[in-house]
Design goal:
single chain, 86 residues, alpha+beta, Zincin-like, three-stranded mixed sheet
Length: 86
């Protein structure tokens, strides 16, 4: 069973989830960009070893548990929630 919502509804749902996050989780997302995609691209599927296309989201960046003072100047992480249009 698939659920279809508009791009605007999906964007509002993402915003609502971010607004509702407990402070301890929201704090670690302060420097993370959110980039919504309709479908995962080929590189993401290969990176995740997931040829069937069942990818709901992907984080790219240095995990917070691996960040050190030597990570200053590094581009912020990005989370790619996948809306799925198929």
């Amino acid at each position: 069973m698939s659920m279809h919502i508009s791009d605007d509804e999906f964007g509002r749902a993402i915003e609502q989830v971010l607004d509702d996050l407990p402070e301890r989780f929201a704090r670690v997302l302060e420097n993370v960009g959110i980039v919504v995609a309709d479908e995962p691209n080929e590189r993401e599927l290969v990176t995740m070893s997931n040829p069937c296309g069942e990818l709901l989201g992907l984080y790219e960046g240095i995990p917070i548990t691996k960040r050190t003072t030597g990570c200053s100047g590094v581009m912020p992480g990005r989370h790619h929630p996948v809306q799925g249009t198929a």
